[in-house]
């Protein structure tokens, strides 16, 4: 969690710093497309309020991320994830409004880029909700879906139920969002392994293999217990 705090603090400082340079120092050359515009076009954008709008947008994003960070410190669930969603909404809406303040030949391109970016953002936030399913085969079990993998029962050393999990040290290749953790992680006490966590609530199925581990749960405790019983029976 500490590295997430570090990223959040870096983003907050970055947005506040650039808003200061644009709004207070009036360093408009930092704004994309401003430096390459002719002096006449630059004056038109200044008169239309385009540079000021960019600076205010960065200030607003910095405030949103700061609020999300503070709420996270008070253990408000999904505060940081929520702040990212609000940040994207602010960026999209204010960027769309700013296209009217830019030179006309750039407006059509900007709107297209914004539309594509918005679609990509929706896709990214939808990815963690794609299902993973446990499938039992004759000599192995498989987690299907995103980051799916198959493990042979001959490699399984132990299958346990945990009420609490060790702390996540780092995500090496995966997605953590809205209490869901999917992919490859390094955890205290366990080392490197794979997580298929659809909820932050127990129970958790921990499968120790010869090389690593895999942890599985669902958003329904009864379903998680059913997975555990299937794995126990199939591995015997």
Short account of what is shown:
The chain is an alpha+beta fold and 236 residues long.
How would the blueprint of this fold be written?
Layout: H1 2-23, H2 39-48, H3 50-73, H4 79-98, H5 104-126, E1 134-136, E2 140-143, E3 149-152, E4 156-162, E5 168-177, E6 180-187, E7 191-197, E8 204-209, E9 213-217, H6 221-235
Task: Describe the 3D structure.
The protein is α+β, with helices and mostly antiparallel strands and 236 residues long. Helix content is 48%, strand content 23%. It contains 6 helices and 9 strands, in the order αααααβββββββββα. The strands form 2 sheets. The protein has a 6-stranded mixed beta sheet, covered by helices on one side. A 3-stranded antiparallel beta sheet has the order 1-2-3, covered by helices on one side. A hairpin with a 3-residue loop joins β6 and β7. The mean pLDDT is 86.
List keywords for this structure.
alpha+beta; 236 residues; 23% strand; 9 strands; three-stranded antiparallel sheet
Supply the number of helical segments.
Answer: 6
Mean pLDDT: 86
Instruction: Describe the strand arrangement of the main beta sheet, using strand numbers.
Output: 4-8-9-7-6-5
Helix content range: 40-55%
Task: Give the N-to-C terminal Cα separation.
Answer: 37 Å
The SSE string, one letter per element, is: HHHHHEEEEEEEEEH
List low-confidence stretches. Answer: none
Rg is 24 Å
Q: Hey, roughly how much beta strand do the residues contain? A: 15-25%
How many strand units? 9
* Main sheet properties: 6 strands, mixed
| Silhouette | elongated
What would you call the structural class? alpha+beta
């Amino acid at each position: 969690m500490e590295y997430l705090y570090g990223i959040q603090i870096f983003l907050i400082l970055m947005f506040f710093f650039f808003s200061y340079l644009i709004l207070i120092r009036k360093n408009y050359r930092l704004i994309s497309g401003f430096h390459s515009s002719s002096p006449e076009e630059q004056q038109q954008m200044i008169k239309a309020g385009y540079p000021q709008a960019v600076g205010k947008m960065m200030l607003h994003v910095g405030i949103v991320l700061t609020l999300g960070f503070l709420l996270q410190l008070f253990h408000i669930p999904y505060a940081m994830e929520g702040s990212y969603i609000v940040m994207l909404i602010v960026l999209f809406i204010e960027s769309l409004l700013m296209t009217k303040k830019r030179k006309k030949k750039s407006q059509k391109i900007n709107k297209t880029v914004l539309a594509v970016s918005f679609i990509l953002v929706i896709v990214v936030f939808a990815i963690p909700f794609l299902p993973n399913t446990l499938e039992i085969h004759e000599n192995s079990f498989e987690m299907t879906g995103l980051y799916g993998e198959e493990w042979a029962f001959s490699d399984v050393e132990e299958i346990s139920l945990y009420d609490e999990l060790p702390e996540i040290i780092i995500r090496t290749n995966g997605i953590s969002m809205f209490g869901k953790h999917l992919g490859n992680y390094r955890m205290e006490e366990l080392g490197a392994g794979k997580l298929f966590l659809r909820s932050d609530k127990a129970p958790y199925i921990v499968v120790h293999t010869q090389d690593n581990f895999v942890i599985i749960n669902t958003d329904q405790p009864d379903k998680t217990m059913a997975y555990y019983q299937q794995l126990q029976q199939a591995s015997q």
